[in-house]
Amino acid sequence: MHSRFEPDRQLTVRMLVTVFLLGLLYVAFVGALLVLLKSTLVVVVVAAAVLVSQYWFSDRIALYAMHGRVVTREQQPQLHGIVDRLCATADMPRPQIAVSDTDLPNAFATGRNADHAVLCVTTGLTRRLEPDELEGVLAHELSHVAHRDVAVITVASFLGVIAGLIVRFAFYSQLYGGRGRRDQNTMAVLAAVIAVSAVVYSLSFLLIRALSRYRELAADRAGALLTGHPSALASALTKLDGDIARIPSKDLRTASAFNAFYFIPALGDHSRLARLFSTHPSLEQRLDGLAKISAELGRPA
């Protein structure tokens, strides 16, 4: 699918490198477990089947998890109108549009490709933003679909879940399947499995977070160039960052599990160390990037 969204070669390269490195990492991981354990192959097959299901039905799973519902043009004429204009400008298929009835102001796009994509916004988002700000957020989310990074981040994130399933199954099968053979050798194997899994999880975690931060900057740029109004997107970012801080912490902690897919993180830590593990760049970085685009377009920031 070739759209008129501003292409980002650096994002494409980063996605390819991340997937390649994660692939090598998990091949080595499974290989190590096959050497250490004899019962891993079944789990690998089951986990692979789960991964395929996750990829194929990612749009439905995300909507279910976020309590989103697909809405018609009659139910949400403003949303449909904005998305229609953006898709016509970008020359891309129109995704399904969904709404999640929550006060948390946010949005996300999901789906394995442009023909099977869903763009979901919360009622808290539509209530807080002006039409031009909402357009900027929707353009940002549509650019994720055009760049295909939604599918990449979905698969990359799920590889960590597969690793966890494998380790958990291996741990219990080794611990309880030995029937009295829980000797020093068994404990050494368990220690080795835990050590290998910890290294794999840590490396995959850092790779995914680095890709996630860059894809948000790429979507900011592509969305702002499509609308031609980077200041509207900057205004939405500033407004939502301040409003999210007033949402009860309990609700934010529940929603933070989906941070990697959100327009803006539900719960963020602005310390220097936390930025290394964050799914999003800092607000300052995003605003600086949009200010540069305003300068390129010859408009005030």
Automatic annotation (TrEMBL):
PANTHER family: PROTEASE HTPX, PROTEASE HTPX HOMOLOG. Its EC number is 3.4.24.-. It is an enzyme of class 3 (hydrolase). Residues 75-292 form the Peptidase M48 domain. GO terms for biological process: proteolysis. GO terms for molecular function: peptidase activity. The active site is at E141. Keywords: Cell membrane, Hydrolase, Membrane, Metal-binding, Metalloprotease, Protease, Transmembrane, Transmembrane helix, Zinc. This is Protease HtpX homolog. Signal peptide: none annotated. Zn(2+) binds at H140, H144, E216. It comes from Streptomyces xanthochromogenes.
